[in-house]
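Sample intake sheet
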Amino acid sequence: MKRSMPDSSSATRALLVLLLPLALLSGCSDSASAPKRGRAGARVPVTVAAAQQRSVPLIIAATGTVEPMQIANVGSQVGGVVTQIRFREGADVSQGQVLIQLDARPFKTAYDQAQAALARDRAQAENARLDAERSKKLVEQNVISAAEWDQKRAASEAAAAVVSGDQAAANNARLNLQYASIRAPISGRTGKLQVHVGDLVKAASSDPLVTVNQIHPVRVAFTVPESAVPQIQRYRAGKPKVLARTGSDSTDVEGTLAFVDNGVDPSTGTLLLKGEFANQDGRLWPGQFVEVKLVLTVQHDVVTVPAPAVVNGQQGTYVYVLNADSTTSSRPVTVDRTDDVMAVIASGLKPGETVITDGQFRIGPGAKVVVREAVGGQRQ
């Protein structure tokens, strides 16, 4: 019995039926993935910005604390009863101004007594001196013995020593009388008053009666990482500016770098710095936390682009440049430094060239793009 051979056209049709679904699936997959690399005919929307040539400050940002230039914890060097408070809490006072008056009568009495004792002993010392001088002449004439003259001379010297002691006691009594008027040791702003009229103040107590803070000028203390130490050493001689801003301010207060610590703190790996501010308007207050910008120098005529334009790849850093025909090309660049907003380009770009700032991860070299909006709100 003869077996019939299958029709070739039927076999071909069967093969096409099997391969058609695979071809459709492959086409769908290519269609889904192609826009990610900017395939021909599909323009990828991007955002662009122009590379600019400008002067850029070299800034180190930190958080700082406002400190008074000087702090004086005012106490009393003598004990006594408070009779007057001669300032208002929170008021500005001048150096030497009387703040608190103690009862001065006991000190005045002691001073008068010391002065009286001094006057009495001075008179006695003068009499002893004259007596010694007369004795010297008599001993030269052999009227009295040398031993008697020695006694007169010793009595004169002893009387002079008593006068010196009386003078020291009088000086001490005068100081105590002056200390009864407690004065401001520095100019500044007073804090909370700890005593009132009628209180008994103890001598040399460790508890201050009032604290005076000098707030014109003030200093702001802040720390920077040890990695910034070489830059600070390089630009310190140029007297870098320090900008400070409180949380409620919209503008910076300008000062100068006044202090750099002599070593890095090994426990934190940071270096302590302080900026000095005139603070004539009183915007900076002791104890405040402030945002600090240390402006080390200003780099002139450097090329900058928005920081998102710079891409880090296996071959280094690069940017995508927009060409005149709306295609893109990859351009290797050398970045001098960057922050959250801007990147300073050392080489690889010229001012005026347009770079992709958003959408560059969906394109490749030669991809066609359409500009959505340029940085700054200008359409391309």
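Comment: The chain has four domains: 37-53+301-374, 60-69+214-300, 76-102+181-207, 104-179. The CA atoms of residues 174 and 328 lie 89 Å apart.
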